[in-house]
UniProtKB/TrEMBL annotation:
<dbReference type="GO" id="GO:0008381">
    <property type="term" value="F:mechanosensitive monoatomic ion channel activity"/>
</dbReference>
<feature type="transmembrane region" description="Helical">
    <location>
        <begin position="15"/>
        <end position="36"/>
    </location>
</feature>
<dbReference type="InterPro" id="IPR011066">
    <property type="entry name" value="MscS_channel_C_sf"/>
</dbReference>
<dbReference type="InterPro" id="IPR006685">
    <property type="entry name" value="MscS_channel_2nd"/>
</dbReference>
<feature type="transmembrane region" description="Helical">
    <location>
        <begin position="56"/>
        <end position="77"/>
    </location>
</feature>
<dbReference type="Pfam" id="PF00924">
    <property type="entry name" value="MS_channel_2nd"/>
</dbReference>
<dbReference type="Pfam" id="PF21082">
    <property type="entry name" value="MS_channel_3rd"/>
</dbReference>
<dbReference type="Pfam" id="PF05552">
    <property type="entry name" value="MS_channel_1st_1"/>
</dbReference>
<keyword id="KW-1133">Transmembrane helix</keyword>
<dbReference type="InterPro" id="IPR010920">
    <property type="entry name" value="LSM_dom_sf"/>
</dbReference>
<protein>
    <submittedName>
        <fullName>Small conductance mechanosensitive channel</fullName>
    </submittedName>
</protein>
<dbReference type="GO" id="GO:0005886">
    <property type="term" value="C:plasma membrane"/>
</dbReference>
<dbReference type="InterPro" id="IPR049278">
    <property type="entry name" value="MS_channel_C"/>
</dbReference>
<keyword id="KW-1003">Cell membrane</keyword>
<comment type="similarity">
    <text>Belongs to the MscS (TC 1.A.23) family.</text>
</comment>
<keyword id="KW-0812">Transmembrane</keyword>
<feature type="domain" description="Mechanosensitive ion channel MscS">
    <location>
        <begin position="105"/>
        <end position="170"/>
    </location>
</feature>
Length: 255
């Protein structure tokens, strides 16, 4: 019984002696997280003030924050009495397993670096990749964040993104819109084309050079499909497409 009492007393004494270390570690954790947030905001202000490319700055900021978090974890572990040298031994022993389990993550990190270096797109560009189309909001360490036309947030892994096909829709300011217009068979196709050309030539959002083109794509017994090609600025793309369809319907009804 005395042995049990002595053992219990020893555990209680060790626990009480360990409480200050736990409290100190919690204080370090709180202060560390506050410092990391402060440095994050400071770095953001510096990047904005010096007009650093947002695509580059957001990625570097992610790397910086994760590095500081890992450093904070090591400091707290050391404060709790865990030998930091043991981390090196553990990492060395588990390097193969970690490498295999994080193979996808490492590929995504490398993909993010390639995107930053070669800049196939920047924050604010509208891209089409991996079956998704949307505006680039941020390039993180492991993924790229975009928002599509339905206002859905989509995260695409950087690995597959950097290795796959990317269509940058807004990299060039001008864009050719191709609108398919289908009408019933009318008496005068030439009148339809001429009237629609007048509408296109007089529209402020349609670029005059290269000139708009109206081609017959398909001719059936009862229907005609036209391919209307016009050059527009990216911001006016959807508006012009709607305009062409509306005017084509009005002209068809009048003939």
């Amino acid at each position: 019984m005395n042995k049990l009492d002595n053992l219990l007393t020893r555990y209680i004494e060790n626990f009480i002696a360990f409480i200050p270390e736990v409290v100190t570690s919690l204080i370090i954790l709180g202060l560390g997280m506050w410092v990391i947030k402060f440095l994050q905001k400071l770095a953001q202000k510096i990047f904005v003030k010096n007009k650093i490319d947002p695509t580059f700055s957001s990625f570097i900021l992610d790397v910086l924050i994760w590095g500081l978090r890992i450093l904070l974890f090591v400091i707290i572990a050391s404060k709790l009495g865990i030998q930091t040298s043991s981390f090196v031994a553990i990492i060395g022993a588990m390097s193969l397993a970690i490498g295999l389990s994080l193979q996808g993550s490492l590929s995504n990190f490398a993909g993010g670096v390639l995107i930053i270096l070669f800049k196939p797109f920047r924050i604010g560009d509208v891209i089409e990749a991996q079956g998704e189309t949307g505006k680039v909001l941020a390039i993180h360490i492991f993924s790229t964040q975009i928002v599509n036309y339905q206002n859905n947030i989509i995260y695409i892994p950087n690995g597959v993104l950097s290795n796959g096909k990317i269509k940058n829709i807004t990299q060039n300011n001008l864009r050719r819109a191709e609108i398919l217009v289908q009408t019933n068979l009318i008496k005068s196709t030439s009148d339809f084309i001429e009237q629609l050309k007048v509408k296109l030539d007089n529209h402020d959002m349609i670029i005059s050079q290269p000139k708009p083109r109206i081609l017959i794509k398909e001719l059936l017994d009862t229907k005609i499909t036209y391919n209307v090609q016009v050059w527009v600025e990216n911001d006016n793309y959807n508006t012009v497409c709607s305009f062409v369809l509306l005017k084509a319907k009005e002209i068809t009804d009048s003939l």
